[in-house]
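Appendix B: a complete holo record

For completeness, this appendix reproduces one full record from the ligand-bound portion of the collection. The bound molecule is S-adenosylmethionine. The inputs are the chain sequence and the ligand SMILES; the output is the full three-dimensional arrangement of the complex, encoded as structure tokens. No fields have been trimmed.
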Amino acid sequence: MSVYGISLIYSSLMGAPYVPTKNKLALEILKEVKFKKNGLFVELGSGDARITRTAVKNYPIYGMAVDINGLLVFWSKILSRFDGSYSRINFVTKNILAVNLTKADYIYLFLFPELINKLIPKFNKELKKGTIIISHGFPVLEYKSKLIKKVERATFPTYYYRL
Ligand SMILES: C[S@@+](CC[C@H](N)C(=O)[O-])C[C@H]1O[C@@H](n2cnc3c(N)ncnc32)[C@H](O)[C@@H]1O
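The structure of the chain with S-adenosylmethionine bound, as generated:
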């Protein structure tokens, strides 16, 4: 069974389903954002960190990839060793509700609405003004007035917010 199959089962058992964003989509999602040099890109619920790995390989930024599933974090480190992104990413095995977000410039989410809602008090407390939130799949309803772009796609839409 593949790492992805095992991870799917493991994450689901922990109440945190693992559904990766399609690789081809990663660049399309990222190209809508103007990244500033040395900015910090944080993927909350990073899976195999494909968005973060793609981001730091294509833009002059740093990444932090956070997932509760240690197997996925381990696998994402291996993948990043091979694709050359390792030195620019901080990999963290942790609940996203317990990670410090005060230094984030860009946040990427592909999470169910229930978990997004739980993040809101933390976002309100920790995120800097100007932080960009990219939410693939589901809107961040709390930030409706801060929506700067919505891109419809064949599968899920992507929502872009500036705080
Ligand atoms: C839908 S997948 C998205 C993976 C990746 N961001 C992508 O777009 O390919 C959601 C991920 O969030 C992780 N996750 C769910 N709840 C979490 C939590 N409370 N803390 C950290 N990670 C969590 C799961 O393990 C899973 O890898």
